[in-house]
TrEMBL record:
Pfam hit, one: CxxCxxCC
Protein origin, superkingdom: Bacteria
InterPro entries xrefs: Puta_zinc/iron-chelating_dom
Record protein name field: Zinc/iron-chelating domain-containing protein
Length: 110
């Protein structure tokens, strides 16, 4: 099982910002506009990631137990590019940091 399906820590630690043209109110955009807020004229971010405690509005479930993204197929580029630690044999210290914040073991190989 993909460890992200139990984790969700990254969705509850980092602001998810991206180009505003990724929202579905622009031609070719897919991210649901009702789940974002404007940062400025060119950047948007997922609701829930603008204040503490952070929790993306699209995150469903209990962190560290069972989670999923309500808009997985329509998630922003920022989320698509974020790899879990160890995915594709890569090291991602941000993933491990998010997991540690929620008391979860790192995924990186030591």
């Amino acid at each position: 099982m993909n460890p992200c399906m139990r984790c969700g820590a990254c969705c509850a630690l980092f602001r998810v910002s991206f180009d505003c043209h990724e929202t579905d109110n622009f031609r070719g955009g897919v991210v649901p506009f009702h789940l974002v807020f404007a940062l400025n004229g060119t950047r948007s971010a997922m609701k829930g990631t603008e204040k503490r405690p952070i929790r993306c509005a699209a995150l469903i479930g209990i962190i560290g137990m069972s989670v999923h993204c309500a808009i997985y197929d329509r998630r922003p580029t920022t989320c698509r590019q974020f790899l879990s630690a160890g995915e594709n044999n890569t090291f991602n210290p941000l993933c491990d940091r998010a997991r540690a914040t929620y008391g979860l073991m790192p995924l990186s190989n030591f």
